[in-house]
Here is the input.
Amino acid sequence: MELSSATSPSLNLPESRFYNYASLANATTAVRLLLITPFVFLMTGGHDAALALAVYTIALASDFADGPIARRRGTVTALGGTFDHTVDFLFVTSGLFAGAWRGAFPWILPSLIVVAFAQYFIDSYWIHRQGRLRKSNLGRYNGMLYYVPLALDIVIRLGARFLQPLLTLLVWGLVASTVVSIAQRLMYRTLSEDLASRSPQK
Here is the structure.
């Protein structure tokens, strides 16, 4: 919980910022960051699916835990949110690229995710200059669903081959929804610029 200046007159602003940035929530997110390299190795090879599942489960648990921890401890920051989303992006795309190298996924899905995240970041910080990521509902749902093909591939490698058609359907559905998300953000940007240009000048 954050302390007000009334309850802690000696609270130093740089120290407060350091506390937020070095918070338990960000440390939980960092666990996922550290798991990227071993996860890529396990997704690139066709072996050790059980170990890949263990690494994936820990990473997913950290993703579920970091947000509630930040809210409960009062350490929610724009930088922490950006760190969380960036690590999600790196974990998912690295795993999908590794799987694509093995032939489990089409290359177009992780490639489109890279484009969508770059657009997301540039739109939020450089174009609209909001100081935080500008979320969209479709982008949020896509972000959650990008984890699912990784899990399905691992389970298929463990023997559940009957799930292969579901994986194929999901992957191409995500390709389509990612294209729509990119187009939607472009459309909103164009509409905003058009409305701004038509607004009366003071």
